[in-house]
From TrEMBL:
<dbReference type="InterPro" id="IPR001753">
    <property type="entry name" value="Enoyl-CoA_hydra/iso"/>
</dbReference>
<dbReference type="InterPro" id="IPR014748">
    <property type="entry name" value="Enoyl-CoA_hydra_C"/>
</dbReference>
<keyword id="KW-0456">Lyase</keyword>
<dbReference type="Pfam" id="PF00378">
    <property type="entry name" value="ECH_1"/>
</dbReference>
<dbReference type="InterPro" id="IPR029045">
    <property type="entry name" value="ClpP/crotonase-like_dom_sf"/>
</dbReference>
<dbReference type="GO" id="GO:0016829">
    <property type="term" value="F:lyase activity"/>
</dbReference>
<comment type="similarity">
    <text>Belongs to the enoyl-CoA hydratase/isomerase family.</text>
</comment>
<dbReference type="GO" id="GO:0006635">
    <property type="term" value="P:fatty acid beta-oxidation"/>
</dbReference>
<keyword id="KW-0413">Isomerase</keyword>
<protein>
    <submittedName>
        <fullName>1,2-epoxyphenylacetyl-CoA isomerase</fullName>
        <ecNumber>5.3.3.18</ecNumber>
    </submittedName>
</protein>
<dbReference type="GO" id="GO:0016853">
    <property type="term" value="F:isomerase activity"/>
</dbReference>
Amino acid sequence: MSDDILMNKADGVATITLNRPEVLNALSEAMVQGLGEFLTDIEGDPSVRCVVLKGAGEHFMAGGDVKGFGPLAKLPPEERRRRFEARIHKLHPVIFTMRRLRQPVIASVQGAAAGFGLSLAMACDMVIAADKAFFTLAYVRIGTSPDGSGSYFLPRIVGMKKAMEIALLGDRFDAATARDLGLVNYVVPAETLEAETAKLAARFVAGPARAIANTKALLNASLGNSLESQLAREAWSFADSAASEDWAEGVTAFAEKREPRFTGK
Ligand SMILES: CC(C)(COP(=O)(O)OP(=O)(O)OC[C@H]1O[C@@H](n2cnc3c(N)ncnc32)[C@H](O)[C@@H]1OP(=O)(O)O)[C@@H](O)C(=O)NCCC(=O)NCCSC(=O)/C=C1/CC=CC=CO1
């Protein structure tokens, strides 16, 4: 496995670190492959109750490696089209797996989240950002259009008009603006980002795993479902959650007026 991406598992949390700080963690082929492999590993590991995605160094991720694109500019247009289409398709299993994972995925963002870096953060379930973080969809500034699910999640999160502004202009905006737009859940002082991310992850680790997984799947499904299908799915999910040990513990703790002690079973 390449050093471009790292994973550490501890106390129920899998932390994935994008690790090319010398280029603001710009994407490499090895990083895409590693991300896919780590997420597949997590999908099969019930001991992981939460995933944290972060960047090494001062930034989250600057997106595709634009300096690495240089040599491609010399290729004939049809060859460029072929190569980029192939490369970008390799990102898709990563996005699908992140959305399909039973565990919540938290993006912990410091510095820049640009291009695919912003797409990736949007594909996470929650985003916690340092007050000094900044965001740009960027693609239009290098003469291209969004990828990696950016054009799927952006209008769903911020609404169509704001999505048009962010995508068509590619301007930078700060963490407070990102929070006001709903792109970020919490903004925290940069020096507390790690600790606040750990606190949020610990809440998921201590939570009712099956209910959390069912809730995540329900919200994902609602983006494309009719009301009728969604209601059917809600009924199934509630009943499935109610068949867990954590549900029995939750209602018992409520009756006993104490905090529940969930085990994830
Ligand atoms: C917003 C920025 C990310 C950061 O801005 P700032 O803090 O002002 O820093 P800079 O001075 O601009 O940059 C510092 C150095 O880092 C280099 N750098 C920055 N971004 C990249 C990058 N994406 N790839 C390679 N290197 C990068 C920059 O050149 C500086 O280096 P030097 O000091 O040597 O000069 C800002 O930098 C920015 O907007 N970056 C570009 C964002 C972008 O266009 N991203 C790519 C869009 S395409 C994409 O994301 C996705 C894919 C996915 C997969 C396959 C194929 C295509 O694209």
